[in-house]
Design brief:
9-stranded mixed beta sheet; 684 residues; 6-stranded parallel beta sheet; alpha/beta; binds nicotinamide-adenine-dinucleotide
Amino acid sequence: MNNFQQQILQGIPETLPQVKEFDPKINHAPKRKDILDTDEKKLAIRNALRYFDKKFHVVLAKEFAEELHEYGRIYMYRFRPDYEMYARPISKYPGISEQAKSIMHMIQNNLSYAVAQHPHELITYGGNGAVFQNWGQYLLTMKYLAEMTNEQTLVMYSGHPMGLFPSHQNAPRVVVTNGMMIPNYSKQDDWEKYNALGVTQYGQMTAGSFMYIGPQGIVHGTTITVLNAGRKISKNGEGLAGKLFVTSGLGGMSGAQPKAGNIAGCITVCAEINPKVVQTRHSQKWVDEVYTDLDQLVLRVKRAKEKKEIVSIAYQGNIVDVWEIFDTENVFVDLGSDQTSLHNPWAGGYYPAGYSLEESNEMMAINPDLFKEKVQGSLRQQADTINNHTAKGTYFFDYGNAFLLEASRAGADIYLDSPTFQNRKNPPLTRGAVGIREFAYASYVEDIMGPMCFDYGFGPFRWVCTSADSKDLAKTDAIAMEVLEKLKKESPEEIQQQMSDNIQWIKGAQENNLVVGSQARILYADAEGRIKIAEAFNQAIKKGKISAPVVIGRDHHDVSGTDSPYRETSNIYDGSQFTSDMAIHNVIGDSFRGATWVSIHNGGGVGWGEVINGGFGMVLDGTVEASNRLKSMLFWDVNNGIGRRNWARNKGAVFTAKRAMDMESKLKITLPNLVDDTLLENLI
Ligand SMILES: NC(=O)c1ccc[n+]([C@@H]2O[C@H](COP(=O)([O-])OP(=O)(O)OC[C@H]3O[C@@H](n4cnc5c(N)ncnc54)[C@H](O)[C@@H]3O)[C@@H](O)[C@H]2O)c1
């Protein structure tokens, strides 16, 4: 047994490891708000010490108090392992259960330096999207995974491994909950407080569910979004050549935008305030050029427009400045969006205009009220300048980061009924939402993803080759392409575009060099596509064509996984966008149909308290059992959402529900009867 394996099996070490120096070269989480009172701080330390033998308490109590004071959280830095953190080939993990070893592979990928945003604070993406709250939880979880059999289930409460419980072969090996709160305790400050106490965490979508595969996951979704946004603004069927897409953020998810812009064929300008983040994405070749001077940026963009170049440009600075200079210099923006982390507005997700990164980081820790004021002022300023652009014809969409939600809370001028929009020659149209004040701009799900993808069952299916071997990934790409090409020939007109876009994507996937971290791939597929691809992988593993198990899963941002009124379910207009039955049913249904692990989270994507989202991971090992599980679970995993979207009267989903029933005689979905609206006119 090698040193790595010994350390995994040891779990929490029996002797105290050396204190770790704080490494300034690493991108660290910002200092969190000082929210606990004195008694609560003692409780946080008492809670943290639960992981350790009493003989270490004197040393650790002092150290944890310092961490709490210095960083606003207790990360237990000293216990960060010395071995390299990355997704090793499955054979390198100690253990009894191949399923559990696959999960270790996924966890280490979520924490690897190439992938994680703040690796030392166990944050994968989105500023606060945590895999674990502290290193004690990591060590204990890995030990449990290495010890467990296929007759046990590991139970995880917000990063804390509650323990191994007896179960059975077909039960999930791990059940994860993140941030599940009593509903009245789900405000932003509740996260600050209970996370500081060490009793909950924000798992984002795929961080706390171990399913994050680096920015590739979102490159694909973003490419589809930009392509379809381009189709929306196309007047004569022309493509995106020479058109300009302006947005912000080069972080975990947002970092995919420039690359997606290149694949979609436009000019992308993406502002990012953090130089370390710009540097990472530039060195990874996810963005072509970097500018720090606004005048030079304007000249460069004008030249790119003239020559219809396909190029992605990072502006190292604040997005508000880009929108403003493009307005005053009359640089026409065709497509506009924003992907700062506004699900986390007061703790480093959004940096206000007029302040440097350092000034903002200091202000949010020392004077959080003033910082909040500055963020809100900046959002109002940003909305005003975006409004100037949209008056000239820019198509702006909310990109699922709670931009419109937070801007509205800041008092920005973004409501549909405001004179700014109603006095326009062509005021924006209502999208049919009832009971809420509608925004002037649509979310990308309302306009693009919902009606074009989710309602037809298309969503972010993904897989990871646990051999960590790129040759296996290439084989899976070829298999997936073959399956999709075959399916496309029999597909109805309604999904032909989706099929073509995804075949195109998988053909270019290797050339586009998308892998960061584990050997993973994503594509959008419907229930039939997902099942056929997964089954073909399982057969290839059985025949030894693929050398090790493949994990399949998906982003929570999907047809069925997420209830989020301002994002995934924003194109649901029967009032049920504020319910979360679908996500809960999803995870329960997945768990008894054979998922290897399931997760349910409060708050992924748009923020704590704003969304419930769930997901799964499933290990394909070439067995008959895996084949049965994948068919049963994937069929449910997609058609649950189809049933619900159909009941909300979404046309595409009604079509897909009927098609699914034709394919599977045991499926009976309740279909809606449509009402003639004239009947309702004089009733009330
Ligand atoms: N559309 C989707 O499909 C989708 C999917 C997942 C996440 N999201 C949401 O998108 C947002 C971004 O996610 P992420 O993982 O990239 O987060 P991130 O925190 O890793 O990146 C956001 C980046 O924005 C930068 N930034 C903040 N304010 C800025 C400003 N005013 N000007 C310039 N740069 C600024 C930050 O420095 C940071 O690097 C989150 O809210 C996330 O929930 C959207």
